[in-house]
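hey so i finally got around to running the thing on that chain from the lab meeting. sorry it took forever, my laptop kept dying and i had to restart like 3 times. anyway pasting the input first so we r on the same page abt which one it is
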Amino acid sequence: MTKTNTSPRLFVDDALKAESALVLDPAQAHYLGHVMRLRVGDAVRLFNGRDGEWTAAIEKLKKSSCLMTINGLLQPQEAESGPWLAFAPVKKTQTGLIVEKATELGVTRLSPVFTARTNSGRVNPDRMRARAIEASEQCGRLTVPEIAAPETLQGFLDQWPVARRLLVLDETGAGQPIAQVLEDLRGGNGGISPECGFLSGPEGGFETSELESLRNLDFVTGVGLGRRILRAETAALSALACWQAILGDV
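ok and heres what got predicted. didnt touch it at all, straight out
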């Protein structure tokens, strides 16, 4: 995608409004001064997930601090209706990849879910959020996905809103073709809401008992991604790419 504005883009927690001042955190100040080599007067784009995207200028820049003056609104805030993604954590590098690419593909909520065969015993929600922020800064979206607390599969299902369709990536071949299911969601067949989420299993797949329990839930639809055996991270991102192609905003 061609960039129309090459100034650095940063996520901040502060409110954004015209002619206000804002102090960046030390890591952001270091990034602007030592990585991007910016100087006083240079432009930076800021967003916070609530107030849209704004242009700002550097007023003071030191080694570990940066004072910005906010100038004008570049993009008003827009509602985002992307899917949710629940996934069984994998190794740290692959989990980071899932978070990064899912953010780029429009996911609005990321949920680590521990299944029977999950082979990664820990996840770091703070690291996941940092990776999601970096991806949001890079791809131009105006929000950062919510990072849900890690849950067991049963705990996750107990809290799932039943009005939102949950598409389970079924590696056994028993699921419906994902493109057809997404087309049905887009068309509202049978009064189905287009809001949905995906559940991607661990390396080695779901246990048979887990799949049987999932299939018995009214809000669950099993979907297939074709005949090839995909890695866990590939399956999750392939499903999101299908969603983006049929229901997405690119």
